[in-house]
Design brief:
- The complex is a heterodimer of chains A (127) and B (110).
- In chain A, 0% of the residues lie in helices and 57% in strands.
- In chain A, a hairpin with a 6-residue loop joins strand 4 and strand 5.
- The relative contact order of chain A is 0.30.
- Chain B is mostly beta strands.
- Chain B has no helices and eleven strands.
- In chain B, strands 2, 4, 5, 6, 9, 10 and 11 form a seven-stranded mixed β-sheet that branches. In chain B, strands 1-3-8-7 form a four-stranded antiparallel β-sheet, with no helix packed on it.
- In chain B, strand 9 and strand 10 form a beta hairpin.
- The radius of gyration of chain B is 13 Å and the shape is globular.
- Classes of the chains: A mainly beta (127), B mainly beta (110).
- At the A-B interface, strand 5, strand 9 and strand 10 of A face strand 5, strand 9 and strand 10 of B.
Chain lengths: 127, 110
């Protein structure tokens, strides 16, 4: 059974960097079969994709957040992490990590859907 | 910025059928957008219902179905039940490795 668990501070001050970690069990991040993503959801609003970690360590980010986001991996701990810099109140949200099922079309790897999600962690940006 | 649109809300009586749609302003949606649908109740993580337009995820009741409806993607609940009262979000692959979620639809069963 694949499980994902987010962890990190629940309160971050404005202009600082939000840091979260997703610990994966039941699958190996480095296995090459899946990609790994971060998604967030402000209270009362829709889901927003933040970015994705490819199995080779490369990344893809939401263009609207790209300048502030870094996703990285620690294969020794089977974890991947999110850093979001220069946070503001608008970054207050529940943050989820999720596993991405991919499809291959020719030479293109397509993120098809998310099959496993963490329970989510609330991060509040406030002084 | 790409905006994926969904109806804000729907009310349905138990046993009735409801169809939610997902579209975006620049044109028609096809299977090449690899649409997927997620169900979410308050305080819970999303649950995958449908992927690749019309494939039900494991354990999803067959009253949930996905399709292309005109120039949009659709999620149909045939014979809605009380436990289907949830928030439903679609997701589309927009190319270049980018996915976008719709704003979500709140379905009330009463």
């Amino acid at each position: 059974q694949v499980q994902l668990q987010e962890s990190g501070p629940g309160l971050v001050k404005p202009s600082q960097t939000l840091s979260l970690t997703c610990t994966v069990s039941g699958d190996s991040i480095s296995s090459g079969s899946y990609h790994w993503s971060w998604i967030r959801q402000p209270a009362g609003k829709g889901l927003e994709w933040i970015g994705r970690l490819y199995t080779n360590g490369s990344t893809k980010y939401n263009p609207s957040l790209k300048s502030r986001v870094t996703i990285s991996v620690d294969t020794s701990k089977n974890q991947f992490s999110l850093k979001l810099s220069s946070v503001a109140a608008a970054d207050t949200a529940v943050y989820y990590c999720a596993r991405v099922v991919t499809l291959v079309r020719g030479v293109i790897i397509i993120p098809s859907y998310f099959d496993y999600w963490g329970q989510g962690t609330l991060v509040t940006v406030s002084s | 910025q790409t905006v994926v649109t969904q109806e804000p809300s729907f009310s349905v009586s138990p046993g009735e059928t409801v169809t939610l749609t997902c579209g975006w302003g620049s044109g028609s949606i096809s299977t090449s957008y690899f649409p997927s649908w997620y169900q979410q109740t308050p305080g819970q993580a999303p649950r995958t219902l449908i992927y690749n337009t019309n494939i039900r995820s494991s354990g999803v009741p067959d009253r949930f179905s996905g399709s292309i409806l005109g120039n949009k993607v659709a999620l149909t609940i045939t014979g809605a039940q009380a436990e289907d009262e949830s928030y439903y979000s679609c997701m589309l692959y927009m190319g270049n490795g980018v996915v976008v979620f719709g704003g979500g639809t709140k379905v009330t069963v009463l």
